[in-house]
User: What shape does this take?
Amino acid sequence: MLRRWHVRADPPLTDPVAGEVAEGVLQGVTLTYAADGGTTQEAQMNAFFKPFADASGATVNEDSPQTLAKIQAQVDTGSYQWDFVSSYGDQISRECGVLF
Assistant: This one.
């Protein structure tokens, strides 16, 4: 899903390293992740998003369930509640350029 971002005037990052995030680089930023819920989403939050939030300073919220109907409503209204979603390859392929 595409989202319009308000870019902050932070200095550019140099020498980025995959899998690392600069401490506090997203301080004050709130991101919302939508997935299917349950133990899988709980594991994703604990393994990835909480450590990312701790390191970057971002607040990462979660929502579920993510459905194409909810994504479509957000796209149609331009009122985005989610910054990123968990999805499947075939769904992304079908909706690429439409919803994603």
Remarks:
- The two ends are 4 Å apart (CA to CA).
- The longest helix spans residues 38-56.
- DSSP finds three helices and three strands in the chain.
- The longest strand covers residues 30-34.
